[in-house]
Design brief:
This protein is of the alpha+beta class and about 220 residues long. It has five helices and 16 strands. The chain has a five-stranded mixed sheet.
Amino acid sequence: MKFTSKSNTNLQLNSLVLTYNDGYKWKTIPISLLFEKKIIYDTFYDKLFFSPEKDNFKKEKRTSTKVSICFCPKSFICIIYEGKWNFQKYKNNIMILENEKNETLELSFGNPSIRKFESNIMEFKESLLKYPDSLFIDYKYKNHIYKPNIVPLIDYLSTKKDNINISKYSLLVGKDTYKYLEKFEDKIRDKNGFIIYGDKDAMINIYKPKIIKVD
């Protein structure tokens, strides 16, 4: 699928969209399209800096990585994984993915050995304000009506007394979730925090998180 600088005419200002950065550009995909496809493939780019022998300054070089943008219509959870993954089945309302090596993966925070990337779900009007230069996927799709309560969930490492790191989850609810994330972003990253967005009830059922009210 191709990306262009023009948004799809089907998109309304209150339509839900997925936004992410591929290393070069911000990109926007309608949730309605992800409802149809479940998985969309793209390429991400990593920045690498190197110093040529003849130069005193560092030059930028980028490497490419194939990724799978995986969306679960039942929970509205979306995680971008490195590599090519396909939808296999649902298990307890959680998507099960499979790759070419017949390895399986739950659409959750999953195996820490598999690289993953963050994305965001928001209304189209909000994405236009935050990412005015975003590219849009060029594809015709059908709008869906259902609109869940989308909230962010943070996966972070917590250290026990015996110095063992375990994953813990915090779910943010309220009007000021974005302000909270901006304020505590450094602390979240210090704990190797990873943020996903999804339906509030589904993520409470799946992760049993601590709920933080940020009104």
